Amino acid sequence: MRILHLSDTHLYGDPAARHYDRIDTAAALRGLLARCRDVPDLDAIIHTGDASDDGSAASYRLLHEILEPFAAAKDAELVIAMGNHDDSEVYGETIALGDRGTTVQDRVVPLPGGRRVVVLDTSVPGAGYGHLDPEQLVWLREVLAEPSAAGTVLALHHPPLAAATPLLRALELDGIDELAGVLEGSDVQVVLSGHYHHEMTGQIAGIPVHVVPGVTNVVDPVTAGEREQARALTGVSLVELGAGAPRVITSVLPHAGDTLADQDVPVYDFGPEQVTAIVQAAGR
């Protein structure tokens, strides 16, 4: 099983809109897929949320206009999870359930070879942090009570891992311990997430967790110091499942949608006051 994992495309309904007045997010996604055209033997393409930046119907139509032909050419299932910038109701009204690989909120998507993707919607309307309702955990426990023949992939936007920066810590997923209790002893082989915009690995209930870098930009969690910075880079991962532990290979690449075309200039550079304002607006 080979999965192309991407996240955080932040598409807009307005073709003239630019992320932070700089990034053409549609061009970024198209450029990334062009670089992936020779990746062989894909079984699934999993997008772990923040597909849209504005939550508009037009942005979701654009998402599928770009991703559907690529998935069809690869004969791969396409799975979309919802993130904190998404609007699951608009997505569901725009992209009919039952279309190729579409998902809204909590769903199970069969994959070739006896595997499945379980998709959880961790978004909170109007907020940046993630949350799972008790009803979602009950549903997940019921789904996992019947193992899939070859195992399960869990896809959700907010990683079940402690964040690396002060800003992202305010936008973490609630209830990680409760989720771990549901996943303990299950057939889940890997948890795939986005949201942090940088690569990160860890475990929950002994299960590997992989966070893929963002398509629209890549956060610098190591060298930015007390500031919050993102660079005009784009990322994607290849996840291979078989016997033993998952194998994850990640590329961080030059940005095809950067209108400034200068990787040395951050896409954003937030000081403490800006971080505090964002936390007050989008955090708990």
TrEMBL record:
Could you list this entry's UniProt keywords, alphabetically sorted: Hydrolase, Iron, Metal-binding
Under the heading SUPFAM superfamilies, the entry gives: Metallo-dependent phosphatases
Q: Which InterPro entries match?
A: Calcineurin-like_PHP, CNP_phosphodiesterase-III, Metallo-depent_PP-like
Q: Where is the Calcineurin-like phosphoesterase domain?
A: 1-198
Q: Which N-terminal residues, if any, form the signal peptide?
A: none
The similarity comment for this entry is: Belongs to the cyclic nucleotide phosphodiesterase class-III family.
The name on file for this protein is 3',5'-cyclic AMP phosphodiesterase CpdA
Lineage, opening ranks: Bacteria, Bacillati, Actinomycetota, Actinomycetes, Micrococcales
